Amino acid sequence: MTSSLPAVTAIIPTVDRPELLRRAIASVADQDYAGRLSCVVVYDGTEPDWSLSRAGDRPVTVVVNTRKPGLAGARNTGVVLADTALVAFCDDDDAWLPGKLTAQVQRLAEVPEAVLASCGIRIEYGDSTTDRRLPSDTIALDDLLRSRLAELHSSSFVFRRRRLLDLGLVNEEVPGGFGEDYDLLLRAARAGPIANVRDVHLLVRWHRASHFVRRWDTMAAALEWLLREYPEFASVRAGEARITGQIAFAHAALGRRRTALRWARRTVGRNPLEARAYLALAVAAGAVKADALVSRLQARGRSI
Fold this sequence. Notes:
Elements: E1 8-14, H1 18-29, E2 37-43, E3 60-64, H2 71-81, E4 86-89, E5 94-96, H3 100-110, E6 116-125, E7 128-132, E8 138-139, H4 141-146, E9 158-160, H5 161-167, H6 180-191, E10 194-206, H7 216-229, H8 237-253, H9 257-270, H10 275-284, H11 290-299
Parallel strand pairs: 1-2, 1-4, 2-3, 6-10
Antiparallel strand pairs: 4-9, 5-10, 6-7, 6-9, 8-10
């Protein structure tokens, strides 16, 4: 097939989820994109299924993570291997919806200064689904300092590969790998706006087997690292309070009552309306269980 559209490599890191992985690969192969599209499956610390490799119009290459173990290293293995103008991410438990890639490549062409494009998402948790989309066509650094903007999910990212290399790839030094996608968004937004497709083009599955579910110690360490790495948070009181409130909640979930109270006080001092501070206090006081609260939020397509 001949096309003037840029070639794209979809990178799917995976760890022991063969059925979900096959669904993710199929969702890439089934795209209506008229340009060249290939897929790289990166096995991270598990035995590869070489039988997934195939040639043809939508080839699949199976490799092992040659960098630091973890999601960031696995993604970077794929980015370095790719030889295309664009690279895209898809986690092995997510699935691209039809039309995703065509819409995002078109959006990237409309915003030449953007490092990447994202899109709306459909969150599936148990029997419930929730659509989340942003009302903006571009997202700036200030937007991301104020809010994580969960609609900007890593499985929706389509990058200009050269610009991603210039950013320094996915950061493999984020503590525990938690929030490496947020760090990447912040760095990308420092370099230019993030292009956004408002329509929903990605299915995201939330479940207890998700990599970072309830890893409270990792969450606290990574978020404290984030505050040190991005001094810009100090100028956005609500954004800083959001992060410190998450840290307070993580420590409360771990039973570290004194530490949770200290972070909750800091949160209220920055933004008295930040609900995470009061949720952390409720967990620290034993009025509610952290896991039960998180499950209720996830059923509504939300998170701490």
